[in-house]
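Re: the multi-chain job from yesterday

Posting the exact lines I submitted so nobody has to dig through the queue logs.
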Amino acid sequence: MTKEELKNNITELLPSTTFDETGEFLNVIIASDELLPFMKTLRSKSEFDFDYLFCLTCIDLNNHLMMVYHLISKTHNHCIVIKAKITDTIKPEIESVNSIWKTAELNEDEVYDLFGVKFLNHPNLRRLFLEEDWEGYPLRKNYVDENMIKL
Amino acid sequence: MEERSVKMDIKKREEKGGLSFPGQLQETPDGGFLVTKLDEAINWARSNSLWPLIFGTSCCAIEMMSAAGAKYDWSRFGFEVARASPRQADLLIVSGTIVMKMAPVLKRLYDQMPDPKYVIAMGACTISGGPFFYNSYSVVKGVDHIIPVDVYIPGCPPRPEALLHAMITMQEKIKHEAYFRKTK
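And the result, structure tokens for all chains:
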């Protein structure tokens, strides 16, 4: 499917979405509570068939967090980027996509470790790189570390 | 540049007696006996059979592997047996970035090595944190915060020649140790 076709099909599926076509991929911006059913459709519907999650990360935009999912379909050879906005920065929460793509499990552990996003229904959410007793989330903009030497 | 080359190191070594045993052989009709100083004999043995611990945490480790490989071949200088266990090693080459999470592991490895033990800090990361000195929440700013270091090698990463130079410098250092003349 081309970018335009993807866009039309997704608008049919979820009329409230906004799009951003500045990058290489088609960016679909949705609200965080719509994520799981939307992702399930993208995975199961045969015309989408996004069978591989090749990147999962998060962006801190000061007043909100943005989860970013890069999806690819190996059968149709098309890519898409799903961005889910999390407005609560104090206690950020989002559904885990681990039940759809198993690879998300460790990626979500990493995002939890560095951004503090809590993934609901995740089988084993834990600190992946940092120690268990680490305070704060280092990739958040408001992270303070007194020992850090600023340039 | 010339001063730093391995060829020069080897030449210097040979001028100072090289690998030959530090002592004199006194010939007698039915054999002979050897006169030496205990310190010198011990240092000769120690410096020429340093067993490095395999401990690589990043790109410097690649250069270290290269130094151990056929082209640079550190076994020419007596570093033949790289050990995977700290119990059998006496030289710790810290080759790579040490993060806060790795620091206790490194300390434990150092503590597990039997005396006498020596440490080479290889590369910018182990000297000062290197490229991770500023704005880093996880990197230890110099491995000498954790363990004592004998020889430092600058570079990012240093070439195998630099590592060989450091190891030969390490041997020189060991040769000047005074175990029995140590003042307390």
